[in-house]
Amino acid sequence: VQLMESGGGSVQAGGSLKLSCAASGYIFSNCGMGWFRQAPGRERELVSSISTYGTISYAYSVKGRFTISRDNAKNTLYLQMNNLKTEDTAVYYCALCRAGSYQDWGQGTQVTVAS
User: Fold this and answer.
1) pLDDT the model gives residue 26
2) Which regions of 1-114 does DSSP assign to beta strands (E)?
3) What angle do CA 78, 3, 79 make, to 5 degrees?
4) In this predicted model, what pLDDT tens digit does every residue of 25-41 receive, in sequence order?
5) Closest by alpha carbon to 93, among 14, 23, 12?
6) 17-24 and 9-12 strand pairing
């Protein structure tokens, strides 16, 4: 499985970015995909996830600002991020969930939000 994120960059607070994660290879998943992020000095945290059945969840800190979606025909996962805050600055990773855990990871894309 290969996961390739794109769409990161630098924006001003209040701005928007849309991340994409293109998946290739044997991407069968029985528990969906997710977006994680890791800021310097902090642990990696789950930002949002979407199950195989379409069940969506968000971290409290991004609820109402971020939207996860997927295009199954393109094997692509998205994360629309609006009203970005400086505390959203992090490396964002997409991950594939199999057998109950996230086992496959992309290389990450940097998101920097300036005040």
Assistant:
1) 77
2) 2-6, 9-12, 17-24, 33-38, 45-50, 56-58, 66-71, 76-81, 90-98, 101-105, 109-114
3) 15
4) 877 777 899 999 999 99
5) 23
6) unpaired
